[in-house]
Amino acid sequence: MAERDYAYAVGRIRILETKLLPASFFERLLKTASVQEALRLLAETDYSAETLAVDYEAAFEAELEGVYRFLRGLTDDAPELLVFLHRWDVHNLKLLVVADGRGQPSRLGVIPFTELKRMVAAGDYTGLPREIAATLAQLPESGPERAAALDQAYYRYGQRILDKGPVLLRDYWRARRDLLNLMIFLRLRKKGVSAQEFTRFMVEPGVLDRNLLEQYAENQLPLTKVLAYTPYRNLGPGEEGMERALPDLERTIDNLLLEMIAEAKRIPLGLEPLIGYLLAKEREILNLRLVLTGKLNKLPEETVRRRLRNVYI
């Protein structure tokens, strides 16, 4: 789209931003006594009361599907937008080439699952980003390495597109890569996996130096030193100098990424506000799932509250 065309698109987004659920709504939701009561409260919003009553997961997927379709129309399938949607295609491809078709495919990708299935069967990956297509043509033999190869290809594809785009989206994507690497390492370390395994599974770093990451993986550097001169310096030890538990760190990372992309609200023209709204809507639905799952499992209100992420507005 030409820059002049974004005035209309951003105008539409500014209206939709006012309908995002605020933190105060999630407080009300937390205080409901049951899933049914929570769903009745949610039905007072723009979410479909009829679909919520039948299957709230289906309602959430339908909501995101509508948002994606709307944004694709507004941007005429801008390459920067498609980066964020192709992750669902990668999810579906993992089901096909890693999990032998087991699992629930998503309807949210750019390419329908039936078409992806045909591609895999025929070995014809025309229509996929070139990084993902090349990886599919030469997949590793084992399941975990196949999944890692697809993730690495996806993040290389995003890097190619977003490094040429707006600075905010470029910086956001770099941070996503860095913070994904951090979580990969911590999860592997918890399983007792070697540092060599980490380097096989990591994606291309953003601003973090690869050597520093590798030294950290080999326990030669403390996490605080690795992150000291980066935008992630506050992700080090938590209270009393103790290393954060993984769920707490994951929540903090999610909040940092949302804080980064929330700068899009200050941009009057461009793709950034549209991507910001997309990520805000995904965050909203993540929080709704956390609350409803907590209700289903009868978790204490405070436990669920600690799991909630910040909201966009």
Distance between the termini: 26 Å
Architecture per CATH nomenclature, i.e. the level-2 architecture of the largest domain:
Orthogonal Bundle
Strand content: under 5%
Number of helices: 16
CATH homologous superfamily of the largest domain, by name? ATP synthase (C/AC39) subunit, domain 3
Label the overall shape. Answer: globular
Low-pLDDT parts are: none
- What sequence of helices (H) and strands (E) makes up the elements? HHHHHHHHHHHHHHHH
Using only C-alpha atoms, the radius of gyration works out to 20 Å
| CATH class wording of the largest domain | Mainly Alpha
For the sheet with most strands, the description reads: none
SS content category: mainly alpha
**How many β-strand runs?**
0
Give the averaged pLDDT, no decimals.
Answer: 91
- Give me the CATH fold name of the largest domain: Topoisomerase I, Chain A, domain 4
Number of domains: 3
Helix content: 55-70%
Summary, kept brief:
With 313 residues, the chain is an all-alpha fold. The protein has helices spanning 6-17, 23-30, 35-42, 49-54, 56-75, 79-97, 113-122, 130-137, 143-162, 167-190, 195-201, 210-217, 223-227, 246-261, 272-296, 301-307. The longest helix has 25 residues, at 272-296.
